[in-house]
Write a structure and sequence with these properties.
The complex is a heterodimer of chains A (430) and B (304).
Chain A (H helix, E strand, L loop, with lengths): L2 H13 L5 H12 L3 H25 L16 H14 L2 H17 L7 H12 L17 H23 L19 H20 L1 H6 L9 H10 L18 E7 L5 H17 L3 E6 L3 E3 L1 H6 L3 H11 L11 H12 L7 E6 L11 H10 L2 E6 L13 H5 L4 E4 L3 H11 L9
Parallel strand pairs in A: 1-2, 1-4, 4-5, 5-6
Antiparallel strand pairs in A: 2-3
Helix pairs in contact in A: 1-2, 4-5, 5-7, 6-7, 8-11, 8-17, 14-15
Chain B lengths: L7 H12 L6 H13 L3 E4 L6 H12 L2 E6 L6 H4 L1 E3 L1 H14 L7 H4 L6 E3 L1 H7 L4 E6 L6 H13 L1 E4 L3 E4 L5 E6 L7 H5 L2 E4 L5 H11 L5 H16 L8 H14 L6 H7 L7 H17 L3 H6 L1
Parallel strand pairs in B: 1-8, 1-9, 2-5, 5-8
Antiparallel strand pairs in B: 3-4, 6-7
Classes of the chains: A alpha/beta (430), B alpha/beta (304).
Chain lengths: 430, 304
């Protein structure tokens, strides 16, 4: 965010009425947050800053809210529960806030407040028996949407914080903003979209690789027909030569993916990469391996759903035979035997694995053959570079033969990989 | 209380958009308002088919400005987006002046680089227009970064420099709308110059309103059912989720067919309107078809 954006933000604020919180927030967001990710961080900050600012102001002027729900203790717990459930189901902001206050008042009277906001929120939620739909809802009470409960929890948290501030008459120390960091998506399903985006980018880059070379005069062929046509524009004088466009090379990709236990956490990520690749490239053959290698191209072509695919692979892959330990040497031998005929300088081999051989023969020379036959060979390693070649990792033996190797366990890394492959410059942190 | 005179302008923009058949939500209306107020370009991002392009068209209709559209694609260059010299006309001019005398007349070469010989392309047209216009730069993410860089001059200063002519400055201030499907991260420089708006698929209620606006004869219950099914389909991991335009198409198709409920058989027959990939069709037929079979149909509820 630069000075220009701050200027814009003020210009925008001048143009909207300040009294409406929604307009105010949207105007700020439109000028400051320039992507969805930014927007998420912006909402967090906005909420936090203005909540604190308003509270600080209230403290200074010694404004207190009059208690509106004095009758809290007289309410029967069951009635209360029903009332709150209704409010949540209706889902308007104001009602939910009132319900949250009601709940807090009721529990505060019973002396159950622990003084720690997070603990209280969970306790109140438990006592109210709020269950998200999907889990078993007790009785015949309608289950509530998970988002609605989360919204209610947010209100609870806010109101508790507000009450705490009123009681202690000072603001709690502001929490570090570490949680506002652009967190990496953790669950594989969430990740999927990001992976798909990175792969879509890879596809586009590969597809347009030839375009950059189009402009180079050297070694391109003059297209006589188009030159003559163009010359009509200039009265029959061929001022401009037209060249035959260079056809971009059709990538032929072989992907080998390690699915052994040593890379369990990463293999879900890898499989999603594979999944995304399959969506984008037609000439793609994929393999999974642990001890032996198994082609899974067909599985991907048949199945659309990611979860179904991973299940199928674990069932039908037939790769985890005896020990479940990776045997890279054997994998290369098998791969070479099966595929060496098809490899040519136009093909790209991508290996996804940690290069941990469990002390077995790495057969780097076979891998060298593979790499030699293929046009390009990339290795994506799910471990940080620091751990390579420690223990049973034999990354160095393979690294020598690869066009390039990358550490890769987040979509950020994947994007870097895409950048390098497509001829761009890697990001600084890569 | 805030809905008094202060709030009128944003609300007015919103009402204006609604009059021309575009139901904008709060953020969209606000950004549209800011774009006119501040004269800044708007960058609209979002998945395909949520009405990004439509927003620009609606703004042009609502403000009664004409719309100039620049459709971006890979390899779009200055000659197609900014301006080009009209070779033929220049050549004719040279020949004409050569015929009259022994050689080319003095000054011919200055003459042929005048505005008369300029072929205006969308960007120059928008800048040079005497009437205020709406400039729509569609799918900016399809172009390469070089083109983005070229846009910067247009977007921040509303001017175009032509080496032979000098700088052409905007006579009126165009409203610029850029759309992107987010297939590539746009450069910071471009984003900095724009207001940002993220459009997403609308919630059930709003999409229902949109569908009913465009297919007013559709029964309200049927419309709700339709939008619910569409939302169900969007939940699936599809290659191409159905867009708003496709829900409208589907609503119209149902009207034509005279269907009064979306049950299993109607859905399977008309599914191709909203799902357009072989593998998607299989998936949707499997998931949604089954759900439609198990849930009681609308007709049962309505008559019962």
């Amino acid at each position: 965010m630069g000075t220009a954006e701050i200027l814009d933000a003020f210009a925008a604020l001048a143009a909207v009425p300040w009294a409406d919180p929604a307009d105010f927030r949207e105007a700020l967001a439109a000028t400051i947050a320039k992507s969805q990710e930014d927007r998420r961080v912006f909402e967090l900050l906005f909420e936090r800053f203005f909540f604190r600012a308003a509270e600080a102001e209230a403290l200074e002027r010694e404004i207190r809210e009059e208690r509106r729900y004095e009758g809290g203790e007289q309410l029967d717990l069951d009635q209360l529960r029903e009332a709150i459930r209704q409010a949540i189901a209706q889902g308007t902001d104001g009602e939910m806030r009132d319900a949250a206050r009601l709940a807090i008042a009721a529990f505060g009277r019973r002396g159950e407040g622990s003084g720690v906001v997070g603990v209280d929120v969970q306790r109140i939620r438990r006592t109210l028996g709020l269950q998200a739909s999907g889990r078993v809802a007790e009785g015949d009470e309608p289950a509530l949407e998970r988002e609605q409960i989360q919204a209610f929890e947010r209100h609870l948290r806010r109101e508790l914080e507000r009450a705490l501030i009123e009681r202690t008459e000072k603001l709690p120390p502001s929490r570090p903003l570490a949680e506002l960091d652009r967190a990496l998506p953790t669950s594989p399903i969430q990740d999927l979209a990001a992976v798909h985006r990175a792969v879509a980018q890879l596809k586009r880059r590969l597809a347009t690789l030839g375009h950059e070379q189009r402009g180079r005069r050297r070694a391109s062929v003059v297209d006589m027909r188009r030159t003559m046509r163009a010359s009509l524009e200039t009265g029959g004088v061929p001022l401009r030569l037209r060249y035959r466009p260079k056809r971009p090379r059709r990538p032929e990709i072989y992907v080998l993916c390690d699915v052994s236990t040593s890379v369990t956490s990463a293999s879900v990520f890898f499989l999603s990469v594979l999944h995304a690749l399959h969506d984008s490239f037609r000439k793609l053959r994929s393999f999974v391996f642990i001890e032996r290698i198994s082609e899974i191209t067909e599985v991907f072509e048949r199945e659309r759903d990611f979860r179904a695919i991973s299940e199928k692979i674990s069932r039908e892959g037939g790769v985890a035979d005896v020990s479940g330990y990776t045997d890279y040497g054997r994998v290369w031998l098998e791969f070479f035997e099966e595929i060496s005929e098809d490899l040519d300088p136009r093909s790209t081999v991508i290996v996804l694995g940690d290069a941990r051989t469990n002390g077995r023969e790495p057969h780097a020379e076979v891998f060298a053959h593979v790499a030699e036959r293929a046009g390009r060979t990339f290795w994506l390693n799910p471990e940080p570079r620091l751990y390579w070649n420690y223990g049973d990792s034999v990354m160095a033996a393979y690294e020598r033969h690869c066009t390039a190797v990358f550490e890769c366990w987040t979509t950020k890394h994947l994007e870097d990989f895409v950048n390098v492959v497509a001829g761009g410059t890697p990001a600084v942190e890569a | 209380m805030a809905a008094g005179a202060d709030n009128r302008s944003v609300a007015e923009v919103k009402a204006g958009l609604e009059r021309v058949g575009y139901l904008a939500d709060e953020p969209a209306a606000l950004v549209a308002y800011l774009a006119q107020e501040l004269g800044k370009p708007v960058l609209v991002e979002g998945p395909a088919g949520v009405g990004k392009t439509e927003l620009a068209k609606a703004i042009s209709r609502a403000t009664k400005r004409s719309l100039i559209r620049l459709q971006c694609y890979e390899g779009l260059d200055e000659a197609k987006s900014l301006y080009e010299w009209n070779y033929r006309k220049q050549l004719l001019r040279i020949q004409a002046s050569t015929d009259a005398e022994a050689g080319p007349a003095a000054g011919t070469f200055e003459d042929i680089f005048a505005e008369d010989f300029l072929l205006t392309r969308p960007l120059l047209e928008a800048i040079a227009s005497t009437e205020p216009v709406v400039l729509l730069i569609d799918e900016i993410d399809k172009t390469d970064q070089e083109f983005e860089a070229m846009l910067l001059e247009v977007l921040s200063d509303f001017q175009i420099s032509i080496p032979e002519l000098g700088v052409i400055e905007a006579r009126t201030h165009p409203i610029v709308v850029l759309t992107s499907n987010n297939s590539r991260e746009l450069t910071e420089a471009l984003k900095r110059r724009c207001l940002y708006l993220w459009l997403d698929y609308p919630a059930v209620e709003r999409e229902m309103e949109i569908v009913r606006l465009h297919a007013p004869e559709l029964d309200e219950k049927l419309a709700r059912r339709l939008v619910e099914v569409i939302h169900m389909v969007r939940q699936l991991d599809l290659k191409k989720p159905p867009s708003i335009a496709e829900s409208i198409d589907w609503a119209r198709a149902l009207l034509l067919l005279g269907a009064d409920d979306i049950d299993d058989s109607v859905f399977v027959r008309t599914m191709s309107i909203i799902v357009k990939h072989r593998s998607d069709i299989d998936l949707v037929a499997e998931r949604v078809g089954v759900q439609l079979k198990t849930t009681p149909g609308l007709g049962a509820e309505a008559t019962g």
